[in-house]
Amino acid sequence: LSPRRELEIAVARREFFFQYQPIIDLAKGRCIGAEALIRWKRPDGSWVSPDLFIPLAEQSGLITAITNQLIERVVGDLAPMLIDEPDAHIAINLSAQDMEDGGFLPVLEAALVRSGVAPPQIWLEATERGFLHADTARRTIEAARARGHVVAIDDFGTGYSSLSLLEGLPLDTLKIDKSFIDAIGRDAATSVVTPHIIDMAHGLNFKIVAEGVETIEQEAYIRKAGVQFAQGWFYSKALPPEDFTAFYHAYN
Ligand code: G
Ligand code: G
Ligand code: G
Ligand code: MN
Ligand code: NA
Predict the structure, then answer these.
(1) Residue among 229, 227, 247 at smallest CA distance from 237
(2) Domain 3-250 belongs to what topology?
(3) Ligand 2 geometric centre to CA of 236 (Å)
């Protein structure tokens, strides 16, 4: 079986599920939600890393079907919790193809209407590649924002987007890639860049989520730099839905 064929079968059998990595409000010391991270366990029990199968899903066009399953799964996993906790949100990762064709939007709207989850409780994350086709990305972002979703730029600092591109799009949240957080407190050349990435984000008036926070030193640094939100192993790994719900209640 080719990897592509295997992935097609996995899509048909709905073998993907999600773990939820908590996101913390640094000023309040509270959990405000989570990012949904895809997991694939093959029928033989082996795990495949998303770093391997997401690129394949993008090349083969299967990613839009996976995104639609993701939406259904998030609502299935967490609708009762989200209805009980109207301030909580879940961030969903979108591929560049999702941003281009926008086909996930009616799927998302239907799932939310059916479940009673409010649109502002679903955030959408797209990497800078998702914003390269500015016209189609703009239409998707505007439609999503009109419905009340927050749209965030993922892996900020690692892509190719120009400031003018970002300035011209109706966005207000960005996630600083973990490579810039890793560099804090180290001698690496990247550590020189980290304060500039944060300044740039502030200059654009973006809310900032720092990703990959692993140490108390990194937390102290980003807090001092005015970063509002943080995510990383210092707080929690990605968790099964019931463990995320427990984490949310413990940190609220
Ligand atoms: O835990 P981690 O290995 O989950 O994630 C690896 C990569 O896969 C990250 O770059 C992340 O953005 C991406 N990713 C995780 N979940 C999804 C998803 O549901 N859809 C898409 N398109 N990418 C995802
Ligand atoms: O959960 P963690 O961030 O350590 O995930 C690292 C990798 O391990 C991911 O690519 C994921 O696919 C896989 N993984 C996630 N949860 C589990 C698990 O419960 N058991 C095993 N064996 N692998 C997992
Ligand atoms: O969407 P994105 O590319 O940002 O995916 C987040 C990735 O980062 C996932 O693979 C997730 O498991 C991983 N991750 C989350 N927190 C940490 C962390 O604190 N340290 C490291 N090394 N990886 C993390
Ligand atoms: Mn992400
Ligand atoms: Na990221």
Answers:
(1) 247
(2) TIM Barrel (3.20.20)
(3) 13
Atom of ligand 2 lying closest to residue 237 CA? 3
pTM: 0.93
Q: How is residue 18 written in tokens?
A: 């999600």
Could you report the per-residue pLDDT of 118-168, keeping only the tens digit for each?
999 999 999 888 888 888 989 999 999 999 999 999 988 887 666 777 778
Q: Under a CB-based contact definition with an 8 Å cutoff, are residues 16 and 40 in contact?
A: yes
Where do the domains of the chain lie?
Answer: 3-250
CB of 153 within 8 A of CB of 165? no
- Ligand 1 surroundings by CB, under 6 angstroms: 37-38, 49-51, 54, 63, 70, 93, 95
Q: Which ligand is nearest to the CA of 182?
A: 3
Rg (CA), the chain: 18
Q: Which residues contact 211 (CB under 8 A, 6 or more apart)?
A: 155, 175, 176, 177, 178, 181, 231, 232
* Residue matched to tokens 């957080």: 181
Rounded Cα distance between 66 and 54, Å, is: 9
Which of 51, 178, 231 for mutating ligand 3's site (highest number of atoms within 8 Å of CB)? 178
Residue 190 CB-density burial (10 A; 0-12 exposed, 13-18 middle, 19+ buried)? middle
At residue 36, the pLDDT reads 98
